[in-house]
Design brief:
450 residues, mainly alpha, binds phenylalanine, 78% helix
Length: 450
């Protein structure tokens, strides 16, 4: 136990930090959840609100989390205990740990699908199939509830395996090479998608906003998606921030991650919507939108067989670098605060996540008993964590920095104790102290009234 305390594990290089943080941010949230949300929330109108959220709230909230983490050199709960001893602030950390569990539980369901789809791609089972058959296959797969749970278990195991090994050997090594590769394959897919017949309609759906579609529901969903996609509001970046070297630049890290994440989401939109419109897939198809559109695109491509395999492998890896960060929040908390060995913490957290996560998977079967208030457990877990807990956590984090930690401590951390310049200091602090808490509160209230 003592050896855990002596030296904290950390990221080895600047590029490693960005890759790990971007690896957390970039995942199913960009490639699967973003198109689903956009399709269900009025297309371009949603995109517009999303971009405002990401630009104006994303960077300041991310910087706040990174600064809290690095200043305190501690996990999500420990950070608040150190920076605000004998106060209620550690509750924000507990909220994050709980949220991490919930997201890991349903996220691993979809992550498991990527493994099923790798197998489908390798066995060439999309070849020559029409849309109706591909859609039916997807629905049939959900009804095989235990098969979903099996893949979910495999995925949770893989995540546990990396986290078990710790920060530098595990997280950093894998993220560095694979994220750029994902970008390249999305560009190739995007080119194919926009050159399909009828693609233009999909592009206007994505880029021509109809302002009358901006409702309270769109606002709250875009806010939730923004936080979800950037991994904000639950302590991932507090935890990762604590592994960042004191000499590294937090501001440029935050900007790089936000830009990379947003680019990948946009690219996913450019891949999915032109193709969906071209094949006649309803943009409101939800879960099927991505999993049915993608194989259809590959069916129309030279070399589709190989590209399809690579795509699902990369999607699985993108999901993995995100689940690693979710689990890391929990494991860092348990091992540091409760003084339980990292390895044991990992095993126990994985077991509990699978137990809870199985309900999310089984709730997607037809006639499932696992529903809450008319929502499947899957949707309920997604909604409560992404649309309620993350924005709430994010709001409390900026309030903490703006009103408790204070300007001088915050900028001392951001500017590496004066060694660096802190760019746009006044604007960033204004957003953190006033604008972000207010904006999140307003969106929350309008969304809930609706
Ligand atoms: N940002 C990840 C994604 O887009 C999901 C995630 C959310 C990861 C919250 C960690 C924390 O897929």
């Amino acid at each position: 136990m003592t050896e855990i305390k002596k030296k904290r594990d950390g990221f080895g290089s600047k590029i490693g930090i960005i890759a790990a943080a971007a690896g957390s941010a970039i995942g199913l949230g960009n490639i699967y959840r973003f198109p689903c949300e956009l399709g269900n929330n009025g297309g371009a109108a949603f995109l517009l609100v999303y971009l405002v959220v990401v630009i104006f709230l994303g960077v300041p909230v991310m910087l706040s989390e990174l600064a809290i983490g690095r200043r305190s050199q501690s996990n999500a709960v420990g950070a608040f205990k150190k920076l605000a001893p004998k106060s209620a602030w550690p509750l924000v950390g507990y909220l994050g740990v709980l949220c991490g569990f919930i997201i890991f539980a349903f996220y691993s369901t979809v992550s498991g699908w990527t493994l099923e789809y790798i197998v489908k791609a390798v066995t060439n089972s999309f070849r020559g199939k029409d849309l109706a058959t591909i859609e039916q296959d997807f629905a049939d797969f959900h009804n095989m509830g235990w098969r979903n749970v099996m893949w979910q278990a495999v995925f949770i195991f893989l995540t546990g395996f990396v986290v078990f090994k710790g920060v530098q050997d595990g997280i950093e090594k894998y993220a560095k090479i694979l994220m750029p590769l994902l970008f390249v394959i999305l560009v190739v897919l995007g080119i194919r998608s926009v050159t399909l017949p009828g693609a233009g309609e999909g592009l206007s759906f994505l880029f021509k906003p109809d302002f009358s579609k901006i409702t309270g529901k769109v606002l709250i969903n875009a806010l939730g998606q923004g936080f979800f996609s950037l991994s904000l509001g639950m302590g991932v970046l507090i935890t990762y921030g604590s592994y960042i070297k004191k000499s590294d630049n937090l501001t440029s890290t935050a900007f790089s991650v936000v830009i990379a994440d947003t680019l990948i989401a946009l690219l996913a939109g450019i891949v999915i919507f032109p193709a969906a419109f071209s094949f006649g897939i309803n943009p409101k198809a939800g879960m099927g939108l991505v999993f049915n559109t993608i194989p259809m695109i590959f069916n129309q491509m030279a070399g589709g067989y190989f590209f399809c395999i690579i795509f699902f492998v990369l999607l699985a890896i993108a999901a993995l670098t995100s689940t690693i960060s979710l689990l890391e929040v929990v494991v860092a908390y348990v091992s540091e605060q409760l003084h339980i060995k990292r390895q044991w913490a990992t095993i126990v957290a994985c077991a509990i996540s699978l137990l809870v996560g199985a309900f999310a998977s089984l709730s997607l079967m037809e006639n499932t008993p696992f529903t809450i208030c008319g929502k499947t457990m899957f949707d309920a877990m997604d909604f409560i964590s992404s649309n309620v807990m993350l924005p709430l956590g994010g709001m409390l984090i900026v309030i903490f920095v703006g009103w408790k930690m204070g300007k001088s401590q915050f900028f001392a951390e951001v500017a590496n104790e004066g060694a660096l310049k802190a760019p746009m200091k006044a604007i960033i602090y204004f957003i953190i102290r006033y604008l972000a808490p207010l904006a999140i509160a307003v969106v929350f209230v309008t969304g809930l009234i609706k």
